Amino acid sequence: MSTFSTDLGLDGLKAETDTLFRRKRLLNFGLPAVIAVYLIYVFFSFDVPGLWQRASMENARTLVADSYSYKTHVTRDNRSGEVKIAIEGERKGSYPAGEGPDWVSIGETTIVDLGDGHIVTFGAEEVSYDVPGYGLISATPGRRGVQAVFPEGVIPDWISASKNRVAITTDAGRFTITRNRAEVFRYFTGWELFWFTLDSPYYGVGPGALMGLAFSGEAGEIWSDFWNNPMWRHRDVAWAIFETILMAFLGTIGGAIIALPLAFMAARNFTPFAALRFTARRFFDFLRGVDALIWTIVLARAFGPGPLTGALAILVTDTGTFGKIFSEALENVDKTQIEGVQSTGANAVQRYRFGVIPQITPVLLSQLLYFLESNTRSATIIGAITGGGIGLMLTQAIITQKDWEEVAYYIVLIILMVIFMDWFSGWLRRRLIRGDEGGH
Amino acid sequence: MADLSVGASSLADVREDYVALTRRKRIYSGILLVIFIALFSAGWQTADDRNAGNFRDGFTNVFDYPAEVLGEAAQKLDQLPAHLVNFFPALIETINIAGAATLIGTLFGTLFALLSTRGLALWPSLIPVFRRIMDICRAIPEIVIALVLIFVLGGGPVPAMIAIAIHTTGALGKLFSEVSENVSLKPVEGLHSVGASWSQRMYLGVIPQVGPNFVSYALLRFEINIRASAILGFVGAGGIGYELRNSMSWGQGRYDEAAAIFVLLFLTIVVVDQVSSRLRERLTHGVSA
Question: Is the Cα torsion angle B149, B150, B153, B156 positive or negative in sign?
Fold first, then answer.
């Protein structure tokens, strides 16, 4: 095919090819081997086998089940005989005294229908649970503990019984009885009370009827009941999302505004003084090197928790990054355009305005918008540290370790927020940069 | 010079039109600028109002905390080397989290990128599926996954590593698929004609073409991931961030430890940035040469 002018003989060529192949083979097998060795080292240094034992599958199960379902607690105080019904056992979700959902009938003896034939009865003294296919379990709480009577045979493993506590977990629900109280959980799918809490008159009203009410002049009350929902806190969540986006917006734009003049100082073709250039560059390196985490901590000490701290932390870090990117863009500016503007008798300001800025605008804008999107994510993380925005709400909800449906809700909102910002910045970039090309 | 023959309009008309156009354009940009400035200052105002402390009071105190920390560290300067040695394992853990997460993210990112690139995909009809998976991986902030995994797996480096790896997969996958869209298909077709399987075609036909670019992006990601892994440590995922939070919560009297961690973190980030930017320079210039 092609001739190689080489003075190597056939053997020489062969030897050379062999070396080449050997090197290739070494790279092909050596590199994956090095990576594999490193991953194995990390595997043991992170103690992954031990982690597997420490991992709590129970937690995982609660998390998953709780994120799409809720439970209603029916609790009887064994001393006073008083029955309370509350969604998720929270005071914000309690039914008014003497009222309950239709599967609970409150009276002298309270009957809780768990569905599929599972019936729990809270009598005056005795509490019983009728499990279909197993039999009736009855228990009497007293001063000396819980006396429980089970059907004949071995007690199955879904019942845990001790002197002071009996717990029964079935597919229909969960039943616990201690000396002081008897409690039944019934599980339902969905996010209960998402729209209205029980104390709102609009609870349980269908969407059609709600529209009708809204048109007949109750729109304000309906909105206020929804907006101030104490369980899901829609107003606070909306503010938190707004704060997070605000942090990203202020930090990104502010950083760019500060970085632009400094970038001129750091660019070789605009600043002839090496010392000034060096100072500006080291300043950018310093801002970037200290890192958002440390800036956040330092600024949080001065300004306290909140969106201002987050915005400033993003601003400071991004000033460093933008300074570097902008100064590189400035160094790549085409000189002829500036000279052209100068030849028409433009002064320095006009030279920058018409000769330089139009050239770097596309780079500047696209970086700005790209950072706007990525800073929305950073703002979530910084918010979790400094205490502002949706990041804080998420960490709080996770720390309580029980409102996993709220965690799921916040996660969905965060993902939607980031996807929206991604789409929005992409849309703006396409519009602005295309418009820019048309304009000049 | 040339006769543009714009109807009966004289030079004066054209000039007037042009001036009017320019003026209108200037007015529009002026209005936009005013709106922008109003939004921007209103934004700062809102942020200031909703913050615990306000800007004017806090501004003078910005350097109080660093001064306090550095002052205390300067007093106990003789203990600094001991602290640096002490916290070095934690630093290694942070770097390992970032390193392992970058490697795993690169591997999965490559896989997803190849599966979602037109012309290279193994199942062309599933391209949108893989694209959406990458979008979602990219959209979830690391802290979300990390916090949830800490609840399930307990504190430690693994939740942080998984969280960063997932985000890296999404971020690199997107960049990688942009690179591999420009790949020459000739080697792939050549390999196909001799009966190479999909994985062989990718490994032998595509990866050599895109390798330097992939490595360059992965290095850039490694820089970002070091910072992310330090931050995740701060919320309980081990490494230097965790130590930083502990030493900070001790408060005064232990600021020398915090200062040592600041120094370690700063040096690590600067060194990694420098080394990786050198390497990237060499890689990309090697490609263009």
Answer: positive
User: Is the same domain home to B113 and B254?
Assistant: yes
Answer for the pair A372, A379: CB distance below 8 angstroms, yes or no. no
- Give how far A206 is from chain B: nearest CA, Å: 33
Task: State whether B230 and A46 contact (CB < 8 Å).
Answer: no
Are B147 and B243 found together in one domain? yes
Return the closest-CA partner of residue B243 out of B96, B125, B88, B108: B88
A292/B227 touch (CB, cutoff 8 Å), yes or no: yes
How many A×B Cβ pairs under 8 Å? 174
CB distance A93 to A100 below 8 Å: no
- Is residue A214 within 8 Å of A202, Cβ to Cβ? no
Which uninterrupted H or E stretch holds A173?
strand A173-178
The domain locations on chain A are: 69-189, 234-439
Please tell me the distance from the alpha carbon of residue B164 to that of residue A402, in angstroms, as a whole number: 25
In a domain, B57, yes or no: no
Q: Which residues of A touch B93 (CB under 8 A)?
A: 45
Q: ipTM value, please give it.
A: 0.82
pLDDT tens track, chain B, 289 positions: 555 555 556 888 888 989 999 999 889 889 988 998 998 888 888 888 887 777 777 777 777 777 877 777 777 777 778 878 888 888 888 888 889 999 999 999 999 988 888 877 788 888 888 888 888 888 888 888 888 888 888 777 888 889 999 999 998 988 888 888 888 888 888 888 888 888 888 888 888 888 888 888 888 888 889 888 888 888 777 788 888 888 877 766 677 788 888 888 888 888 888 888 888 888 777 544 3
DSSP letter for each residue of A48-99: HHHHHHH--HHHHHHHHHHHHEEEEEEEEETTT--EEEEETT-GGGBPPTT-
Q: What span, in angstroms and rounded, lies between the C-alpha atoms of A248 and A128? A: 57
Q: A227: number of CA atoms within 13 Å, CB side?
A: 9
Question: Are residues B33 and B76 part of one domain?
Answer: no
Interface with chain B: mutation pick from A51, A299, A308, A375, highest number of B CBs within 10 Å: A308
Instruction: Assess whether B105 and B29 both reside in one domain.
Output: no
Task: Tell me the C-alpha distance between A382 and B281, whole Å.
Answer: 31
Residues B13 and B76 in one domain: no
Tokens of A417: 């927020």
Residue B224 sits at the chain A interface (C-beta within 8 Å): no
d(CA B7, CA B14): 11
Range of the domain at B39: 1-44
Cα A435 to chain centroid, rounded = 35
**Are B136 and B239 found together in one domain?**
yes
Shared-domain flag, residues B152 and B227: yes
Count: domains in chain B: 2
What's CA A440's distance to the chain center, in Å?
Answer: 42
CATH superfamily of A234-439: MetI-like (1.10.3720.10)
